[in-house]
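#onboarding

Welcome to the new folks! Below is a worked example of what a typical request in this channel looks like: someone posts a single protein sequence, and someone else replies with the predicted structure as tokens. Don't worry about understanding the tokens yet, we'll cover that in week two.

Example request:
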Amino acid sequence: MLQSSFTGKILLILRSSLHQIIRYHELTRPISYTPHLALSALAVALFGLLLLLHSYRLYATRLYAFSILLIFTTLCEIIGYAFRMRSSRPPLGNPYNVINFIVQYFFIVCAPVFLSAAIYTTLTSFIGAMSGGNSAAARQLSPLGLSKRTILGIFITCDVVATIVQVAGAALIGVAESDRKSPDTANNILLGGLAFQVFAFLLFLVLLFIFLRNSGKAGKATGRDDAGRGNPLRMYIVALVASSLLVYLRTIFRLAETAQGVMGYASTHEPFFGALEFAPIVMAITLLGWWHPGRLVGKNGLLLR
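Example response:
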């Protein structure tokens, strides 16, 4: 009987200790939920296929800047989701490892920067090709008469600055959560970087729609309608606009998620991440892979014939 009582006390102590360990890990886990392995594995597989698609497009069209940027995008996503897999449940993952969190966040956040840069280069490529190399025609097409170099310089710089601020904020959140300190200051840093990125990309969308208006006016003046229903260029323009809106949707989600705080509803429910981070980026890269601008302005492109 004494042995039974002693064993019962040992089991009670072990159960209490286990509860404390689990509670400690719940408090120190750098991400507010344990990522599902299936979503991360699906992401690695899909981005792997898109990597192959864009590598083939690079070979076929020789549109180097755009294709290399999309290849970097898919590579970053693959690395990010691979480390997100390592943040899943044991035995494959460890959701309490801060390094896994920081690496997956860094690459998943940085990947759309290359995607955005590819979108910017697509706009400037369309301006150059549709103007036929004529500087006066290019100024007419270009939004606000901005040069291609100015458009790229402004928006790539904005993206780089915003991403540096976001990564710094995310890293500080991970450290604060692991040290059981308030992540509010770090979250505000992250929020500032996202707000700046949302504002900058909104300005790009305004310029993109000005370009569409200018190209429509130029088409009517010359009897050529590049965005017309019967024109094969129409779907490439639609793909550019749709992919831009998808990237913007993803950025707005990140801003809303961060505004709610580390333990907000969006931050603690992975379906939001899957639907508004993962899905828009996959769809945008797919659109730009199928209606690849290299088929217009690359080797033997439609606009160069």
